[in-house]
Amino acid sequence: MIAPDDLVCLKAIALLGGLSSAVSVSSQSLAQELSISPQTASRRLISLENTHMISRTMRGDGQYVTVTQTGEENLRVEYAAYRRIFETHDRHYILEGELISGLGEGRYYVSVEGYASQFSDKLGITPYPGTFNVKLSPSAIETRRKLDAMEWIEIEGFTDHDRTFGGARALKCSINGYTCAILIPGRTHYPEDIVELISAEHLRDVLGTEDGSAVIIEVTR
Amino acid sequence: MIAPDDLVCLKAIALLGGLSSAVSVSSQSLAQELSISPQTASRRLISLENTHMISRTMRGDGQYVTVTQTGEENLRVEYAAYRRIFETHDRHYILEGELISGLGEGRYYVSVEGYASQFSDKLGITPYPGTFNVKLSPSAIETRRKLDAMEWIEIEGFTDHDRTFGGARALKCSINGYTCAILIPGRTHYPEDIVELISAEHLRDVLGTEDGSAVIIEVTR
């Protein structure tokens, strides 16, 4: 395996075009590029040459460096790792937590026609009248934050009999294979360790869970 | 900028799934994965936490680690660099060298109908009767080797009047905008610093070159 410090240097040469031609590289220019000392840059170049990652030649106007086949293979291994990290098409977020009781207002809101029709149209969920509330474990909170970057479905606010109902955003997910959706009201500052879900099922019943039961929420992008 | 050693560690956590959920990571498991000591692994985790690249939590069954948004951004910067390195669609290889005289046999072979018709059909080049020979500069030899991985066009061998003509492979390229092709006979062990080219033009004339003139060959994938 290539040393991490050498890899940074090899990558810099590749970015200069060293994969497809000999590029002019001096210890000074490399040092500046990588914010290291020229001495360190020089050592890195020697190390890369000794491990057959680059070949170096001197011309009248200075040193020229080409990334060798071995060097390119090492860079490709890195590239493949990053592709595995970022190009997993079905990226699966896993949020762990435990079931808690809501305040009971979920039951009311979910039943309001202006919301229910949107849940049905936009999420394909004719919701059970009630919400399923999960307190996330501390290790899941960081993952929960990342969900903000996903495409949430907007549930619009509306007025009914002079009463104003605020908007919300929803994200489909599943618990033990049951389709559900995380619902976040737009109006309030929502606690980041609580997730409120709706589902066509009475999840508490079908999952056989009670307060304190472990729950795993899966979100697939 | 993230320290190279920390990056290796962060990448390993991302490969375990740390981007999308909290993953079980111990100093021991990480040490084994990265072939470093558990003490070093532990230091790396602390460093990554201090720089807000990961968040760590303890559960009953051990330590769980999630890559934070900041950590993910750092990995994305790396990924983007590797994409720039490898996904440049028109990858341009540049080979520098100087014009030399051939042995004169190029003129004969290029004129043989069995070859000439293939150059015309497969390369779109009705060749000037003669080859253009370039001695590569030392810094170009490494680049020349990489061309072997490209898709060469096969020029088939044949028999004419009881004489056997060997096969060859050809790769289209250009010199100063003039289309030409590198030709490598299949039969012999060819010197790696010599490139023999054919072109519809009398390159020596149109380029105004003579023996010793600098020549730049461009190959685009």
TrEMBL record, chains A, B:
Belongs to the archaeal riboflavin kinase family. It comes from the Archaea. Its EC number is 2.7.1.161. Pathway: Cofactor biosynthesis; FMN biosynthesis; FMN from riboflavin (CTP route): step 1/1. The keyword Magnesium applies. Mg(2+) binds at residues 131, 133. Catalyzes the CTP-dependent phosphorylation of riboflavin (vitamin B2) to form flavin mononucleotide (FMN). This is Riboflavin kinase. It comes from Methanogenium marinum. InterPro entries: RibK_CTP-dep, Riboflavin_kinase_archaeal, Riboflavin_kinase_CTP-dep, Riboflavin_kinase_dom_sf, WH-like_DNA-bd_sf, WH_DNA-bd_sf. FMN binds at residues 188, 196. One of its GO terms (molecular function) is nucleotide binding.
